[in-house]
């Protein structure tokens, strides 16, 4: 018997206790890549705000570009991967573009337009790789274990995210003062590590094979068996995909970005600039510890409640940042809750989405939902930067907390009355789009 709600259907915990080699190999690639990317992410606010003296509005634009720019190529990359059945190849191009972009930061110097262009290029690479990677995880994993699989992958990913800021902190300590030359050395090291991640992808990851043979409907594939552009464009006619995309957009509006969170913690708690990367370490450690347990919990009790619970944790973080709280204990609590928010939402949202999308266009569907979230993130980062400039950080953060409440309520209404992906498949076995 199936519950008539998206993400609320319980699965048999005996369905399996392990994840496959594809998930582990992709986790290893993400681990290495995140060492590289988090080296940059952990120091980028420090570099832009303290070294280059950017104000909140300009930093908000840069921070928004850092995630929002991925929306430009997510759907295109997802469609190309579905059309060509080369998810690994498309993901590899994305990883490669992001690696080269690290050298672009060295070339850009103190040029704000140059840095913006490099950030866009780096995030375009992420936009290309994320949906094909998540589609490979979904294709290689039984539905009953998707929460576990994404949890394990995100745990390995966050292990790299945990190590990256430590590497950055070590380099900053070794090089001394946080000068432009110090950052150039850090960006070059990041490029070398990212290149190793690209090599690891092509040596260890095996795609699960073509999915077009599982597309019997002409509405999904063309006469040659390839995925049609009309089928991809028609994804928003699938009620579950449309609701998930709208929900992801609403939830994305409530996210202000790591850089803002860490800058407020640093200023509010009087943390020295040299220790700025440690804040990301705390978040990523909590993410690392909680990602797999939250993924397994989502498989047991339903994925939607876990996602919404993650945004409740984000709401509490905003309250801590905007209130009169001080001391190391409150800082640790904020970082643990922030890491818990990521653990409960990042992979679990993709595990919630994957089964709702017909297999032949699954990569495109995942990219569509991710794009909705990325566009919203761009808007929220710019909006938060403007609000910070006009009314100050505490007031802007309280406003973000209100947005979280609205987004959680709207998401619960959007998704709680929808059929489960499995029930939908049983009633529409051809897997047609539309």
UniProtKB/TrEMBL annotation:
Key word ATP-binding present: no
Domain Major facilitator superfamily (MFS) profile: 22-419
Gene3D superfamilies, per database record: MFS general substrate transporter like domains
InterPro entries in alphabetical order: MFS, MFS_dom, MFS_trans_sf
UniProt xrefs under SUPFAM superfamilies: MFS general substrate transporter (SSF103473)
Membrane-crossing segments per the record: 15-32, 39-59, 158-179, 185-205, 244-265, 271-292, 304-321, 327-353, 374-393, 399-417
Membrane topology type: Multi-pass membrane protein
Compartments where located: Cell membrane
Thylakoid found in the keyword field: no
CDD domains noted in UniProt: MFS_MJ1317_like
Coiled coil location: none
Pfam family, one: MFS_1
Subcellular location, principal: membrane
Protein keywords: Membrane, Transmembrane, Transmembrane helix
Record-given protein name: MFS transporter
Annotated organism of origin: Actinomadura gamaensis
């Amino acid at each position: 018997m199936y519950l008539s709600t998206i993400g609320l259907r319980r699965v048999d915990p005996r369905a399996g206790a392990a994840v496959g080699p594809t998930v582990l190999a992709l986790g290893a690639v993400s681990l290495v890549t995140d060492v590289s990317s988090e080296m940059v992410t952990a120091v980028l606010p420090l570099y832009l705000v303290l070294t280059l003296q950017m104000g909140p509005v300009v930093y908000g634009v840069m921070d928004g570009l850092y995630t929002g720019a991925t929306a430009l190529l997510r759907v295109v990359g997802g469609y190309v991967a579905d059309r060509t059945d080369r998810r690994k190849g498309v993901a590899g191009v994305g990883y490669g573009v992001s690696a080269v972009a690290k050298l672009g930061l060295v070339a850009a110097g103190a040029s704000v337009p140059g840095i913006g262009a490099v950030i866009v290029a780096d995030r375009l690479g992420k936009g290309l790789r994320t949906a094909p990677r998540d589609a490979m995880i979904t294709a290689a994993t039984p539905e009953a274990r998707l929460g576990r699989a994404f949890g394990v992958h995100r745990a390995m990913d966050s292990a790299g995210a945990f190590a990256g800021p430590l590497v950055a902190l070590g380099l900053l300590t070794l090089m001394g003062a946080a000068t432009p030359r110090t950052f150039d050395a850090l960006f070059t090291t990041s490029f070398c590590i990212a290149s190793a991640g690209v090599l690891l992808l092509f040596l260890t990851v095996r795609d699960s094979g073509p999915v077009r043979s599982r597309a019997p409907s002409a509405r999904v594939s063309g006469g040659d068996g390839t995925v049609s552009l009309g089928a991809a464009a028609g994804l928003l006619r699938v009620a579950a995909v449309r609701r998930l995309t709208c929900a992801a957009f609403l939830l994305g509006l409530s996210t202000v970005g790591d850089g803002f969170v860490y800058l407020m913690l640093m200023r509010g708690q009087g943390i020295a600039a040299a220790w700025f990367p440690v804040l990301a370490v705390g978040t990523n450690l909590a993410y690392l510890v909680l990602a797999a347990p939250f993924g397994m919990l989502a498989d047991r009790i339903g994925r939607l409640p876990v996602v919404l619970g993650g945004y409740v944790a984000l709401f509490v973080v905003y309250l801590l940042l905007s209130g009169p709280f001080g001391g190391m204990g409150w800082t640790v609590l904020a970082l643990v809750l922030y890491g818990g928010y990521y653990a409960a939402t990042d992979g679990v949202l993709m595990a919630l989405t994957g089964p709702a999308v017909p297999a032949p266009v699954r990569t495109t569907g995942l990219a569509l939902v991710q794009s909705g979230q990325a566009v919203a993130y761009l808007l929220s980062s710019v909006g938060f930067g403007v609000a910070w400039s006009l009314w100050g950080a505490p007031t802007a953060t309280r406003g973000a907390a209100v947005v979280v409440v609205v987004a959680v309520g709207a998401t619960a209404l959007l998704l709680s009355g929808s059929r489960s992906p499995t029930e939908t498949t049983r009633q529409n076995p051809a897997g047609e789009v539309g």
